[in-house]
Specification:
Layout lengths: L3 E8 L5 H9 L8 E2 L19 E8 L3 H10 L10 E6 L6 E4 L4
Antiparallel strand pairs: 1-3, 1-4, 2-3, 4-5
Length: 105
């Protein structure tokens, strides 16, 4: 049996994408998150007529402790502009993604 959590993280182009990915992968051993611009993917595979001008990271995880992960993103990752970070989450039984702001208004 599985309990999958789908994640999409977007942040400002001010962020160093490689550095952010490395920091997030430090959440726990074997935690892998990937950029939509990952070198293993074809260039501009996502459609449109322009290259993306933002950082988008994606991943799907089994039995993710979401509260712990959110705290990690808030406290352990060194963001240039944390107020521009958006976390989209779709858990196993959800019908759609929900938006979680790391810095509440």
């Amino acid at each position: 049996m599985s309990n999958v959590t789908n994640l999409i993280i977007t942040c400002s182009a001010l962020e160093d994408e490689c550095q952010i990915i490395q920091q997030i992968r430090g959440f726990m051993k074997g935690f892998n998150i990937v950029s939509v611009n990952d070198e293993k993917l074809p260039i501009s595979w996502y459609g449109g007529t322009k290259n993306l001008e933002c950082v988008i990271l994606i991943g799907a995880y089994n039995y993710l402790d979401l509260e712990e992960f959110i705290l990690f993103l808030k406290n352990a990752v060194k963001w240039e502009a944390i107020d521009l970070v958006q976390l989209f989450v779709k858990q196993q039984e959800d019908m759609r993604f929900k938006l979680i702001d790391l810095v509440p208004e």
